[in-house]
Design brief:
Strand order of the largest sheet: 15-14-16-19-17-18
Number of helices: 10
Order of helices and strands: HEEEEHEEEEEEEHEEEHEHEEHHHEEHH
Distance between the termini: 21 Å
Structural class: alpha/beta
Number of strands: 19
Largest sheet: 6 strands, mixed
Helix content: 40-55%
Strand content: 25-35%
Length: 383
């Protein structure tokens, strides 16, 4: 351990001496040119003059390296994952930790207006020394290997039904499921973009019909990291109520099979009858696909986060996490769930579901579940 530490620090010292000319040259510019190997792309990392010294913003660095950054405000620690390795910084300290070893740069990390800035030498000197196989310099230019982005950056929201397919219809107010689904989805989209800064795409943003198969195809084509299908439940009786969430598998219970049949009936009614059903059934082989199987565990974890937050935030009856073979979830090669926000067939829940304030509460609780899952998922995927 001592030998490795000494060698690492010797490399850092050498890189520091070799990089002094580069740092002096950079003082005359306002950005560092970064070339990404393999894709012939050039990006720029902005340089800030703080206290007469060159710094770069940690968020900008995270964007460049497709990295995950987390800040612990209580003890002013900043965690940054680059190339599947974690760095730990301490605000106003000249030290950082990497692989349980401590390293020092010439001047401290600074925090200003809620943002954190690390000395530029961390990028131009320390990182090439710690990742010699992934980073190098050519004059004033930094050359890096293309980082792998495994964090959640793109989410597809799927408001169920639409257009000629109204979905379930309330027995008291005659409310249409398609309208409730879309309203909640639009509120949720705004929250996700504003609070998490993720890209949010929607399978429909207005009252139009979209086939079930094209919904997951849209998510795959846009390389979505999460697929969330938003629905409102219905039952023959007027008593059933509560929230339940599904992820893809074979239905285990009679109730789950009933909901599965209700949601899948869209195909036979609106998409071409038995011939369309056969096409969807051909996709059943996807259930045994290795990638799909890997995502089932994440889908279950996502469902747990959502169910916990939705039921706690709305005080609705918790009907649990269930499995069903929904056509709309087949072929989604990312964590995917289907939410049933309540029973439109129940007069009390129908009155809630059409209420704007309740829709906003639903969207907020769904957002909190996604946020909680994202932080955990990003940490696992980048650590």
């Amino acid at each position: 351990m001592f030998l490795r530490c000494t060698m690492n620090k010797a490399v850092i010292c050498l890189m520091f001496l070799l990089g002094c000319a580069l740092l002096n040259a950079l003082k005359q510019t306002d950005s560092l040119e970064v070339s990404i190997r393999g894709i012939q792309t050039t990006e720029y990392l902005r340089i800030y003059d703080l206290e007469g010294r060159d710094y770069c913003n940690i968020e900008g660095m995270a964007s460049l390296f497709r990295a995950n950054v987390k800040t612990e405000r209580s003890d002013k620690r900043i965690y940054l994952n680059i190339y599947d390795e974690q760095f730990i910084f301490l605000c106003h300290s000249s030290y950082f930790t990497f692989q349980n070893e401590e390293y020092k740069y010439s001047y401290p990390l600074l925090g200003e207006s809620g943002k954190f800035y690390v000395p530029l030498e961390f990028v131009t000197l320390h990182l090439p020394g710690l990742f010699p196989d992934k980073m190098s310099r050519n004059g004033k230019k930094l050359i890096i290997t293309q980082p792998h982005d495994s964090t959640i950056r793109t989410i597809v929201l799927d408001p169920g039904h639409g257009g000629r397919d109204p979905g379930a219809v309330g027995k008291n107010l005659r409310a249409c499921e398609k309208d409730i689904n879309l309203s909640v989805s639009l509120i949720l989209k705004n929250l996700l973009e504003k609070e998490l800064g993720v890209k949010v795409l929607m399978t429909r943003s207005d009252d139009r019909f979209v086939s079930l198969q094209s919904r997951t195809r849209y998510a795959n084509e846009n390389k979505a990291d999460l697929f969330i299908s938003i629905h409102t439940n219905a039952a023959r009786d007027r008593v059933s109520r509560g929230i339940e969430i599904y992820y893809l598998s074979t239905a285990k219970t009679t109730e789950a099979r009933a909901v599965e049949a209700l949601e899948n009936s869209v195909v036979e009614i609106y998409e071409g009858g038995q011939e369309a059903l056969r096409k969807y059934d051909d996709l059943a082989l996807i259930l045994s696909d290795i990638l799909q199987a890997e995502n089932l565990e994440h889908s279950n974890n996502l469902a747990l986060k959502l169910q916990m937050n939705m039921c706690a935030g709305t005080k609705a009856i918790d009907r649990g996490i269930k499995q069903a073979n929904f056509y709309v979830l087949r072929g989604a090669f990312m964590p995917a769930v289907l939410l049933e926000m309540g029973f439109i067939s129940n007069p009390v829940e129908e009155s809630f579901l059409v209420n704007k304030e309740y829709q906003e509460r639903l969207a907020q609780t769904i957002f909190e579940g996604i946020k909680s899952f994202k932080f955990r998922y990003d940490k696992i995927r980048t650590s």
